Amino acid sequence: MVMENATDVRKEWSSVVDSVVHDKPKFIKRTRDRMWLSNLETMQEILDGYTFTAERFDEEDGSVTLSLNEIDLVENAPTEAAARRLLAYSIMDYASEYYENYQMYSKAPNRKGHVPYIFKALITDDAEKIGEGIVCRDGKN
């Protein structure tokens, strides 16, 4: 792997950032630490492979419940569209909370796998887009 030394990156910060934004991501090494510097478009392309999916349940009262598969979030509303909207806002709220507590959440065994979905939500930063992108499948009542 092509690793750039952190000292060199720091000395040439402006040109490194320009290169990352306009050319390609960089791999950087500082002592034992390794990191990756990228623009958000590249990260978005990587995360495009991750999709939010939900089980849809039609309730006896006529409402719709959506249960997100990737993260333990559930919303109920009078229509699927309204439930999607609520679920999208719940995803965004959870993503913000996760990021604020990243050190703890990213190490928790039951939350580790949420990382790509958290970054997908944070980078998308649009509840309407997130809601439209949720793939719903009929669940079993």
CATH class of the largest domain: Alpha Beta
What is the approximate shape?
A: elongated
Unreliable sequence segments: none
- For the record, give the distance between the C-alpha atoms at the N and C termini, rounded to a whole number: 50 Å
Mean pLDDT: 95
Number of helices: 7
Q: Note the run of SSEs as H and E.
A: EHHEEHEEEHHHHE
CATH architecture level-2 label of the largest domain: 2-Layer Sandwich
Task: Return the structural class.
Answer: alpha/beta
Residue fraction in strands:
15-25%
Widest β-sheet, arrangement of strands = 6-5-4-7
User: Do you know the CATH topology of the largest domain?
Assistant: Double Stranded RNA Binding Domain
Number of domain modules: 2
Largest sheet: 4 strands, mixed
> What's the gyration radius in Å?
19 Å
The number of E-state strands comes to 7
* Helical content band: 40-55%
How would you concisely characterize the structure shown here?
It is built from seven helices and seven strands; from the N terminus they run βααββαβββααααβ. It has 141 residues and is an alpha/beta fold. The strands form two sheets. A four-stranded mixed sheet has the order 6-5-4-7, covered by helices on one side. A three-stranded mixed sheet has the order 1-2-3.
